[in-house]
Known about the structure:
The structure is a single chain. By secondary structure, the protein is α+β, with helices and mostly antiparallel strands. The chain is built from 18 helices and 18 strands. The strands form 5 sheets. Strands 1, 2, 9, 10, 11, 12 and 18 form a 7-stranded mixed β-sheet that branches. A 5-stranded antiparallel β-sheet has the order 14-15-16-13-17. Strand 10 and strand 11 form a beta hairpin. Helix 1 (14-25) packs parallel to helix 10, helix 3 packs antiparallel against helix 4 (115-138) and helix 4 (115-138) crosses helix 6. The radius of gyration is 23 Å and the shape is globular.
Amino acid sequence: MTDKYDAIIVGGGHNGLTCGAYLSKAGLKTLVIERRDILGGAAVTEEFSPGFSASSYSFIMGHLHPKVIKDLELEKFGLSRVVVDNVINPTEDGDCIVFSKDPKKTQAQIARFSQKDAENYPKFFASMQNAIDLLRRLQFEVPVDPVKRDIKSLIKAGKFGWKYRDVSDEIYDIIDGLSLSAHDYVDRWFETPVVKAKFMYWATIGGNVGPYSPGTAFYLIAHLIGQLGMSFPIGGMGAISNAIHASGKTAGLETRVSAPVEKILVRDGRAYGVRLESGEEIHARCVVTNVNAKIAFGQMVDKEHLPEEIVGRISRYRTRGKSFKILCATDSLPEYASFSQEKTGVDYPAYAHIGPTPEYLERAFDDAKYGWYSKKPFLSAIVPTYYDKTLAPEGKHVVSLYGGVAPFELEGGSWDKERKNLVRNAFDVMDEYAPGFSDTVLDYKLILPKDIEEVVNMPGGNTLHGEMTLDQLFFGRPVPGLADYRSPITGLYQCGASSHPGGAVSAVPGHNAAREILKDWKRL
């Protein structure tokens, strides 16, 4: 057994590092343990081909919370970013529309297709803004359980209700998001397919059903919660994890890699440490799990230590993913046939969404409904080397294709045989909109949900660590009874993205968990 710690954090992803940094800065002797040989979890930058590096799993910095950046002084520890102001959206008829962080420019672009849609654009965002603002406030809340009837829970619920007593309209907007399809939500405001498709595209990212399905409007709203816009860190997403780690180290944070945890140790209803697969035990006053709840409470904690209802709920927590990513090493930039500097006022489209109509996006999910992958996938095509020269050799480029849909398992087939065919489908789409793209590809790496599960230990390969649906949000995330970062076991906490507020590289779950641990510290 090694030295005893105040806190052990299982999993060195960005949330685990965030929690560890806050605890260390509060004076707790803290150790973060990571199973892989690299810290960062899904927020890592890795070489995928000789000389070419990319953000392997996550891809955008826009959700990283400004409070965490400020608290942990991440810019002081090397974090810098670039904002990609424009996203192009090619149409099927050889044109393209650009959406910019400048609303007036976007409005002018929309007016090229529909004056009515251009007039409705600011109204649409104004209608969503209250819901977005409320969700931003709720990020830092500890979910209250409305079912519990003990005095302590009733007091918490009462305080929460009083604090949010004036947000009825915003609640109705969020309920709309959680019940309406993205199509119906957007259709209220816009008449032009390309404009509708632009907003519906956000509802496809991380989702398991098409944008015509009820509840998908919430994905659209949730993707707009981030306050940093279309931001990308210089050096890839691993730069975020590296800066958080460096910040924590100045306060004494310790880390270990290549140390997979086998069990969270529990005795008499209390967590007291972990046992590694090597057999080594490390003890601590509290244990914090940054791994997915299905792993933590379904495998690492013996079921005898958990209430039966929690075990059952965790077994039903849905984590299957359907997104894929292709990292491409290329010898030149993609050249989109429909792109025009004159029409768009953009120097180069370093970020593109290929999903030109609502029907195109929905059809991409059709094959997956029956256990297959998309014939024509939708794609987020990002060229990080256009603004970050550190990721590829001089004159070469990295093109990251994030898309859908690719189910975890195939019905009547195997991914061993079909991987190349999915890549071919994606390259065919790129060739349609950026002719000759596939000829520029020197090497590539395909990442499927199965790969994400195997490498990053995310069950089902869901990029959001669990579906973001009504039953798996707020007091239901990951499941009722585990929503306040605590657990039924004294001294066992959770800080990962399967807890509130969910996926994306926000660092908010890590921040919130550390806050709650410090509140409880004197009683532990």
